[in-house]
Amino acid sequence: MTVPRDGKREVRATLELHGLSPNKKLGQNFLVDPALLDAIPGDAGVQAGDRVLEVGPGLGGLTRRLLGAGARVMAVEIDHGFVRLLRESLAAELDSGALGLVEGDVLAPGESFHPEVEDWWKAGPPPRLVANLPYSVSGPFLGRLPGRPLAGAVLLLQREVARKAAAGVGEEGYGPLSIRLALRFSVSLGRKVPADVFWPRPKVESGFLHLSPLADAEDVEEGILREVLRDSFGQRRKRLLPRLEKSLPEAARRMRELGIPDDARPETVAPSVWWEAAKAVRIPSS
Ligand code: SAM
């Protein structure tokens, strides 16, 4: 089989040839700018031998660049038509073991990824994440990252989700996701990308998000932190501490000790204070 090429015309022709068409629900907006595709592995700091997770390889444009940079790639694709095509066009890489391909949803219930991804994650050094993420999975995907060993991530996603993930205290979008990420990673917005690097063109703005692990990240009990945040951001309009007092009194007490006033709103409380509050919650012994 010939290797699919990356321009807009070529992508359309490849899909047509295989009786496929872009599925909006699955966020199938393909990167059709070869120069951008060429730049991504370098921008993501991918080195030969790195383990890389790619969500949604689609026709494999980015996958081939990652493999070309010497990465060992694990790719997860939900669309059977693309998996079939990738199995043919990247047969040699699959045979050599440079590429692993899982067919299915990258997201599993709870806070997990697809079981094969979970096994792969644990089976070697911390991976890098490099992907043009489908819109529907971006938020839940990012929410599953805190607490996992990670070498770094460069993800192309909806600009609004990237902003939310990178928001600092008091900024628009600051909330549970940005707080949990900030406690583990240095999070920054990368460049915006114009809609015409995709086909079909998305209706929303897109841009890169960069995550690199904090060397001094302290151990955070993710389950408790999530509970404290869920409780506090669930009813943002109410005063934070009087309400938290009822559900998680130790967390409320710790916040008071740290000088948080009763009428504070959750979006004004810094990540380090949320972490201190979560640490103060006693885990019931089972
Ligand atoms: N990587 C290709 C590119 O850059 O041209 C395609 C990216 S496209 C934005 C998103 C891809 O993710 C599609 O191939 C889609 O089928 C796949 N996808 C959507 N939801 C998924 C999920 N829950 N799990 C795994 N793959 C998914």
What can you see in these coordinates?
It is a single chain. By secondary structure, the protein is an alpha/beta fold. Helices cover 40% and strands 17% of the residues. The chain contains 13 helices and nine strands. The protein has a seven-stranded mixed beta sheet, sandwiched between helices. Strands 1-8 form a two-stranded antiparallel sheet. Helix 3 links the parallel strand 2 (51-55) and strand 3 (72-77). Helix 2 packs across helix 3, helix 10 crosses helix 13 (271-280) and helix 12 crosses helix 13. The longest helix is centred in the C-terminal third of the chain and has 13 residues, at 222-234. The radius of gyration is 21 Å and the shape is elongated. The relative contact order is 0.11. Bound molecules: S-adenosylmethionine.
Structure in a nutshell:
The chain has 286 residues and is α/β, with parallel strands linked by helices. 40% of the residues lie in helices and 17% in strands.
Unreliable stretches: none
* Number of helices, counting only DSSP H or I runs of 4 residues or more: 13
Spatial extent as radius of gyration: 21 Å
Strand content: 15-25%
Approximate helicity band: 25-40%
Name the shape in a single word: elongated
The largest beta-sheet arranges its strands as 4-3-2-5-6-9-7
Terminal residue distance: 57 Å
What value does the average pLDDT take? 94
Number of strands: 9
Series of H and E elements:
HEHEHEHHEHEHEHHEEEHHHH
Biggest sheet record: 7 strands, mixed
| Class based on secondary structure composition and strand pairing | alpha/beta
- Distinct ligands: S-adenosylmethionine
